[in-house]
Design brief:
Length: 660
């Protein structure tokens, strides 16, 4: 009797089958790597075997060339893994149709999902922890991830309950225990614990090894940053009243830095420093040379400066306020997040005024108050009224309880000046929002419901996918903020139409998501690109790499999706991307397309008009593949007769058997 060690079945879609305890996948890998097979004393003549059958040659080619093609590709492709890769341990069920998309920069997987409505691994009936499930998956596809010791190189950083009852686990990539900047993997599980989606931005394990020693101390690194910041802006202490609102004034941590796969990884200090209330700088300092590799202002900020004030809408608004010691305060304690504590209210919306001063160490920001029920400050009243609406939008639409989803106080500060003049600017500072009173070009920024929702949404992004505020991830951050603006201020696709002085904005708005060119011409600051062929490749020094410029392309895609399927469906897709953490910190435009497609597919189905609308929209702005359909598998399905191939362990023959 010939002992058959493995069988391959080819049918119309080619199929690998494992029998008994034999791990087919490992066997194929061994064939691919020309390693001895189990129970083999003599090496097989692999070439002979492979040549013996055309189909087998195709299989070999599949394994040998796939990754090479993927990494050299200019855009992510799909790797269709063979059907029916059944876990030999029979403990976790793998999907039989897994798609891996690759990051064009690093050649590592950036988005993994299964076709159809299956999870990647069905863990439903087994008592595996989520963490065991993900590492089981990574172990099986170890070659694709290019990590030597995944369990040591991916460190659990955050566990997030998503609003559909699922779980997202964020893993930080580390090397020698030191995290690598911006490189992370997010595993997404449904409420049964089945692994559904993996999003990642990871780099292959460093080779050769990179030293962990450094010569620049932590304090020296902070000093290098502070000296440089001194040249850029004013360093002022945070006023006492606001200190409790600010998370950190300075922070320095060791990281590896690898933003260009052609360069060597560098050990760096990432220094975050708040020189004043408005700004937060991030510095990347070489921990051995002290060189500043990169630096930028890390807080989202919008529009130019200099000011002038107007009456807002002349509408009599009913407000939710707070009475304390006989005074009425602009504290909104009517929301489900309120902690019901009169002495120390939390879970509230609060409006401060900075009394027409710069936010400096001498600031005395106070909660807007009145001795009667009537408030006479129209700017504060408008902001208070609108923030109530923005909170309600997120709560009623997505059950999101405040900016962080966890009852964080919502704080807005009005009447903030810039070097003594009215400020034509609004900020999200990482902890609270600041609104200037405008100037020649702008009315008070609090006049724009979309502007307020924009700043609020920057906060929502920070507490979900935390997109890094530079280049494409920064433009996506802006894109989400404008999306938020157009969802809350729902009648149009314009951003800032209620805050611009039309004398300076001929189109009547700051940005038009339906027409990013905004009736202007290239070179005019009102003009934004609307398609990837107009993409502005800018250095970090210019608007953090064009975050307020290339947002035009994202805005156009948002508009196209929204006009095709309506805002009600659009908001479900975009929020799902945030809520499920389908984007990593350094996600780019292509990642965004993949994430939106995934969310649309989950919400509306594989063949839905909604998914098609998403694809069409990204195609129309030049993001992703041009065909508007799913990427082609690398290996076309094998058609024809059904054969069974058998390798004999003793005779080393390859048998081709007609199907019986
Ligand atoms: Ca608007
Ligand atoms: Zn913004």
């Amino acid at each position: 009797m010939k002992r058959i060690i493995f069988l391959l079945a080819f049918s119309t879609i080619y199929t690998l089958v494992a029998f008994g305890q034999i791990n087919t996948f490992d066997l194929l890998r061994k064939v691919k790597n020309k390693e001895p097979l189990p129970n083999q004393k003599v090496n097989l003549d692999y070439e002979k075997i492979i040549q013996a059958n055309k189909n087998f040659a195709q299989l070999k080619q599949f394994f040998q060339t796939t990754r090479k093609e993927q990494t050299s590709s200019s855009k992510p492709k799909t790797l269709m893994l063979p059907k029916n890769i059944i876990s030999p341990e029979a403990d976790l069920q793998f999907s039989d149709n897994i798609q891996i998309q690759y990051d064009e920069k690093y050649g590592t997987p950036c988005f993994i999902q299964a076709n159809g409505n299956q999870p990647l691994i069905k863990a439903k009936y087994y008592n595996f922890t989520l963490s065991k499930t993900i590492f089981h998956f990574i172990g099986r596809f170890g070659d694709e991830f290019q990590l030597k010791e995944p369990k040591n190189e991916l460190v659990e950083k955050e566990i997030i309950k998503t609003s559909d009852g699922g779980t997202a686990i964020r893993y930080q990539q580390v090397y020698n225990g030191i995290p690598i900047w911006g490189k992370e993997l997010i595993a997404n599980f449904n409420r049964f614990g089945d692994l559904e989606v993996i999003t990642a931005k990871i780099v292959p394990t460093f080779e050769p090894s990179v030293p962990v020693n450094y010569t620049v101390s932590k304090n020296a690194a902070i000093n290098i940053a502070v000296e440089d910041i001194r040249k850029r802006t004013l360093i002022q202490e945070i006023p006492e009243q606001l200190k409790r609102l600010v998370t950190n004034t300075e922070k320095a941590e060791l990281w590896y830095y690898l933003e260009n796969p052609n360069q060597k990884p560098t050990l760096i200090w990432v220094v975050e420093y708040r020189p004043n209330l408005l700004e937060r700088y991030r510095y990347f300092i070489d921990a051995n040379t002290g060189e500043i590799l990169e630096s930028y202002q890390a807080n989202p900020s919008d529009g130019p400066a200099i000011g002038y004030g107007l009456d807002l809408f002349n509408q009599n608004r009913q407000l939710n306020v707070f009475v304390f010691n006989g005074k009425y305060l602009l504290i909104n304690a009517s929301k489900p997040m309120y902690n019901q504590n009169v002495q120390s209210p939390n879970g509230v919306i609060v409006i401060y005024t900075n009394n027409n001063m710069d936010l400096t160490q001498n600031s005395q920001p106070t909660i807007v108050s009145s001795n009667t029920q009537n408030f006479s400050d129209p700017v504060a009243v408008t902001l208070h009224y609108f923030l109530d609406k923005v909170y309600d939008y997120y709560y009623n639409t997505f059950s999101r309880n405040s900016i962080d989803g966890n009852k964080k106080n919502i704080v807005g500060i009005v009447h903030v000046t810039d070097q003594g003049s009215s400020m034509a600017n609004a900020f999200w500072t990482g902890d609270f929002m600041v609104f200037g009173d405008g100037g020649n070009y702008f009315y008070p920024l609090a006049r724009g419901l979309d502007v307020i929702a924009h700043e609020f949404t920057h906060g929502v992004v920070q507490f979900t996918v935390d997109l890094e505020y530079k280049f494409q991830s920064g433009a996506l951050n802006e894109g989400f903020a404008d999306w938020g603006g157009s969802m809350v201020d729902r009648e149009d696709w314009l951003i800032g139409e209620d805050v611009v002085n039309p004398a300076y904005f001929p189109s009547g708005t700051m940005r038009d998501m339906s027409d990013p060119h905004n009736k202007a011409y290239p070179g005019d600051p009102n003009w934004l690109p609307a398609h990837m062929n107009e993409y502005q490749d800018l250095p970090l020094e210019k608007d953090n790499g064009g975050v307020h410029i290339n947002v035009g392309i994202i805005n156009k895609a948002t508009y196209l999706i929204g006009s095709a399927i309506g805002k009600d469906k659009l908001e479900k897709i975009y929020y799902r991307v945030l809520d499920k953490r389908y984007l990593t910190k350094q996600a780019n435009f292509v990642d965004f397309r993949l994430a939106c497609e995934r969310a649309a597919k989950e919400l509306f189905g594989d063949n839905s008009a909604e998914l098609q609308a998403v694809k069409n929209a990204f195609d129309a702005v030049g993001i992703g593949n041009s065909g508007g359909s799913a990427p082609n598998p690398d290996l076309p399905p094998v058609s024809g007769k059904h054969y069974i191939l058998a390798v004999d362990a003793n005779q080393f023959y390859l048998w081709r058997l007609e199907e019986t």
